[in-house]
Design a protein that fits this description.
Elements (H helix, E strand, L loop, with lengths): L2 E7 L3 H14 L4 E3 L8 E6 L6 H15 L7 E6 H6 L1 H6 L5 E3 L7 H11 L3 E3 L4 H9 L9 E5 L1 E2 L10 H4 L4 E2 L2 H13 L4 E5 L7 E2 L2 E2 H9 L6 E5 L8 H5 L10 E3 L7 H7 L5 H14 L4 E3 L1 E4 L6 H14 L5 E4 L16 H25 L4 E9 L6 E4 L5 E4 L9 E9 L3 E9 L6
Parallel strand pairs: 1-2, 1-3, 3-4, 4-5, 5-6, 7-10, 10-13, 14-15, 16-17, 20-22
Antiparallel strand pairs: 8-9, 11-12, 18-19, 18-21, 19-20, 21-22
The structure holds S-adenosylmethionine (SAM), iron/sulfur cluster and FE3-S4 cluster.
FE3-S4 cluster binds next to helix 1 and helix 7.
Length: about 450
Amino acid sequence: MIEKIFIKTFGCQMNEYDSNRIFDSIKKIGFQRTEKYEEASCYLLNTCHIRDKAKEKVYHEIGRVKKIFRYKKKPLVIIVGCVAQAENEEMLKREPYIDLVIGPQSYHKINDTILNHIKKKKKIEITEFDPISKFKYLSKIKNNAGKVSSFLTIQEGCDKFCHFCVVPYTRGPEYSRPFNQVLDEAKYLVDNGAKEIILLGQNVNAYNDENNKLSDLILELEKLNGLERVRYTTSHPKDMTEDLINIYKYSKKLMPLVHLPVQSGSNKILELMNRKHTIDKYIKIFNKFKEINSKIEFSSDFIIGYPGEDEKDFKDTINLINRIDFINSYSFIFSPRPGTVAADLKLVDKKISIKRLEKVQNLLFENQMKMNKSLENKHLNVLVENLTEDRTQVFGRTEYMTSVILDGNKSDIGKIVQVKIKQSNRSTLFGEKINNSNQKVA
Ligand code: SAM
Ligand code: SF4
Ligand code: F3S
């Protein structure tokens, strides 16, 4: 059997990792990947449920697929990811065009489910939480991402239950993959060209497998010849432990950007959100990092207009942003999610929330512009990841994850090159290569 599959991915980096792993699996039963809708005989949509309209976005996308295939044979339509988990068999009832619905902790069953469907033409929904079997299964199939910068999921799920968030319901309880299973996958990635590994988890710094913590894992990864850079995301302030902070003292491969979502600058709001940390604790963590290395920078996530947020709370958020000078941060207006504690709380007036978001984003963007401008004429280490889309230049990232575009060719891919920055805008730096460099920790 040879089938061509088109895979579309919404949502976070864990979904990107999952989409690639799903493909690694279904390749075994004859699937080839295509980037062209029209030539696909199977359409897989990996969905995200984090904010408003997530569900509608999925049905809208299926509407588009229906149109494309109006005069052709109907493709096999598979919905996976967090909307699949949250909506489960409802999806099959609402949209008969969907054939299979598979939740994030059931991907080990995808091959059998597809084969079963092809044989019996029955619609199937699987949404059990079984991460142990999933990762056991996936660890037997090679991770063939083949990218210079590769994602590697080490932890899934969440037990923290922030009142605004669907993740504990869509990904299930916190689970850490076995230490050796992760190391084996990392070795394979490096043997196949990965120079950077980004360790992923909804609470990545809660990683703990038989007392092996994230810090132990990073130190073990550092020993891999050929691996140049290590990152991890997303962390929770509550799990930012001394052992993890301290490895920044001697790590040679850990990058100096810490993504640590704070959500709000107000203790009152943090408590209403059930965040389990205070601003004081957050600033203490920030100061500890800065004492170890003043070049370490922070990025964050913010939720604006959480129910109960008044002018004073909002000012606290602005003050925190001014205090920390975050780079590359994300900010969104609170979106009530069905099934969460905050789902039915009284909303902040929409116009006020929009104004506050604008203010926060202007401030965050200003910081980013300032930071990027300050890098002009500086020499930076850039890991070249790929050719640009038009294939005329190359694209890479600084130690702080900022995108850099420079002249170069295929032979630069996978190398850390020193780049003189000539120009910048908010999201991208433009420069020219000076020579290949030996990376130093910032
Ligand atoms: N585990 C991470 C943490 O605790 O910070 C965050 C994971 S979540 C997938 C990514 C981000 O989505 C959150 O940091 C939050 O800012 C945002 N988010 C989650 N639920 C949201 C909601 N209901 N409305 C708006 N933003 C939300
Ligand atoms: Fe969601 Fe992160 Fe809170 Fe867990 S810790 S509930 S993933 S925001
Ligand atoms: Fe979205 Fe699920 Fe990730 S809700 S952000 S795809 S964990």
